Amino acid sequence: MIHPRSMLLPLLIALLSPWAAAQSTRTENNEELLRQIQEVHQLTPAQMEKLRAIFAGSRIIGQGNPAITQHPVTPEQCQAKLRQQGVVYANPSFERICGAKYMAPLYDPSKQKPEDATACIDQFEFPDIPCTYPVVWVKAREAAQICAAEGKRICDADEWEDACEGRTEPAESQYRFDLAAGVPPEVGIHAMRLAHNRAEANDKRWSYGPTYQTGVCATGSFKSPGCNGGDWKQCGSNTYPTGDFPACHSPLEVYDLNGNAAEHMNLPLNTSQMSSRGSTTLGYTEMKGSWFIFDTYRAHEDWCRWRAPFWHGTRVLDEHSHANYHLGFRCCNSPGKSNTTAGSSSSTVPGTANLSAGQMNRGPAATRRTMQWLGLAPAGP
Ligand SMILES: [Ca+2]
User: Fold this and answer.
1) Is 361 a member of any domain?
2) Confidence label for 303 from pLDDT (cuts 50, 70 and 90)
3) What would the pLDDT profile of 4-46 be if each residue is shown by its tens digit?
4) pLDDT > 50? residue 175
């Protein structure tokens, strides 16, 4: 007679093996992804080491859960389509201005030239390589750390909005910092958002034009049947390869701002939290753009300067900042402000070694304590 207990181990293995297989596929996919990143973006061994450490620190980061993800288009199909249409994304002039591949200068074409840009933004969602699935299930904190590891920085919300709109606005005109002064962060964020959306609502634009359209961007995919929220096991990251929709770009040549993956950005509540001014403490989370199901399910607004509610909101560098199946990110840089310094061994990776004691005191735990003290967050860990 077989003892019931002897049946348990094979049963446990059978139950866990799809999970284990998916994990090992995810690890292999990430290995290949890191190899591509090194090759395309020419990262140094030190930069690669930082990237690897960030990836190794997460059990979910990658291009989706391989057990359930169903991409509508393969990278090979994307490459074939671009070849057939004669689309070439490499831009030597942008590369010279931005000091990096696949970045677009941010400027106002009505009075400036690309060379006048003081900031650049990735033309594609991270890994910023055409015909590569975006990295999702990445916390805002990890996004900021990855950008820094590459010698870049996570973009401020207004930089993403400028890229989408096709025209820069002075950064200070894009944040009502006065509304966040002297009030709890959540109160300030809410007030700033309302004022911003109200001010911009009469002049809506999407990256591809002045009216909302379906079919132009990577918005024709689907949600996994059992996915009703943010469950790793139920929600496939059914994304397209980046740049698979050559018409989905802004006047500044930035792609997939609408559609494919939504994107983590930094929302500053004062100038000291602005990534564009070199902040390493950063501000609060902001999710930009729409994602891959919008042709059939328009979950929220996605015009360029629209700011989303403080969904799953935290400080960007909070250990518990949000990650989900349709949320990726892209990075910015400030050409001429020494990207190489940020990529060197003395670089400042947000949330790690270079935070001073004062900065640490303003970290997530302190924020939570403040919110608890103000009665805005439940007590406890
Ligand atoms: Ca996007």
Assistant:
1) no
2) very high
3) 666 777 777 777 777 788 899 999 999 999 999 999 999 999 9
4) yes
292 CA → ligand 1 middle, Å: 8
* Dihedrals phi, psi of 355, to nearest 5 degrees: -75, 130
Does the structure show a pLDDT above 70 at 372?
no
Q: What per-residue string of b and e applies to 44-82 under the rule 16 or more CB within 10 Å gives b?
A: eeebbebbeebbeeeebbbbbbbebbebebebeebeebb
Q: Ligand 1 centroid vs 218 CA: distance in angstroms?
A: 8
- Rounded Cα gap, residues 61 and 323, in angstroms: 9
Residue 153 three-state SS: strand
Gap between the Cα atoms of 131 and 66, Å rounded = 18
- Please check whether residue 253 lies inside any domain of the structure: yes
pLDDT of the residue at 337: 65
Question: HSE (CB half, 13 Å, CA atoms) of 223?
Answer: 20
Distance 262 CA to ligand 1 centre (A): 5
How many whole angstroms separate alpha carbon 151 and alpha carbon 334? Answer: 10
Q: How far apart are the CA of 312 and the centre of ligand 1, in A? A: 18
Q: Domain for residue 381, yes or no?
A: no
- Give the distance (Å) from ligand 1 centre to CA of residue 352: 27
Please count the structural domains in the chain.
Answer: 1
Distance 299 CA to ligand 1 centre (A): 14
Determine, yes or no, domain membership for 303. yes
* pTM for the model: 0.87
In the reported structure, the alpha carbon of residue 63 is separated from the centroid of ligand 1 by a whole-number distance in angstroms of: 14
Q: How far is the CA of 49 from the centre of ligand 1 (A)?
A: 27
Domain containing 226 equals 20-356
Q: Rounded to the nearest whole angstrom, what is the distance from the C-alpha of residue 220 to the centroid of ligand 1? A: 13
Tell me, in angstroms, the distance from the centre of ligand 1 to residue 248's CA: 10
